[in-house]
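Hi R.,

Quick one: here's the Proline dehydrogenase sequence you asked about.
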Amino acid sequence: MHAAIIEACDAAAVKNVALLPGAEEEATNPGLEKWTLELQKRYNTLERGRAIMYTTYQCYLKSIPDRLAAHLAKAREEGYIAGVKLVRGAYLASEPRHLIWETKEGTDACYDNCTEAVLKRQWTPFVKAPASISASSFPEVDIFLATHNHASVRKAQAIRNVQGVAGEKLPRLAYAQLQGMADEISQELVQEGKTKGDKEARAIKCMTWGTTTECLNFLLRRASENREAAMRTEDTRKAMGKELWRRIKRVFGSS
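And here's the predicted structure, written out as tokens:
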């Protein structure tokens, strides 16, 4: 298996294609994190100038701020680019309850605070510098924000806009939503990139590929998550209505 992973990573590295393994239930995450960090050291070199391998952080877990800080410190100490993918998490129903923030607001705060730390490339009261590293030292970092939460996206955009105005160096950033979900957010991100000229940020739609059998686990997970996505339906409906009305007015206005 190790040889197959290295072969896949070598092929991705040749084409500068990012690899973003998902996190799983917490019982298996330490093992996943161990090998993604080893692969980050091998492939996310400063000489290459970009991250190939990322580690996924599920922000509904209380341990994430400290784990993220430890991994960022490791990247700084060992001289490679940290690949950070932030998600909220997909195993709420099966994880031991004491591992998870007590409220959704706790998860939201964790996601937004972790986002702020990596976007600004600064240690914060939430993502604290470990004792082994200087508080003024922060690694190079590439960031992947996988979220359907409009508020989190806008907070990230606000940080980037301030950095752009100040002429700061912007870390490589991608926003991602699933194909067929939160399309109004994806469209807004595309337009924002065009108007603000943020060349380091991209909007990505993620989809599965393969036969139904090959993709079954992914599709079942998405079906389960769609029940929670019902809370976003009203926002999506309003966004679609607003866009439809804009197009109608444009047609009649030009006739």
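The first strand starts at residue 55 and ends at 58.

Cheers,
M.
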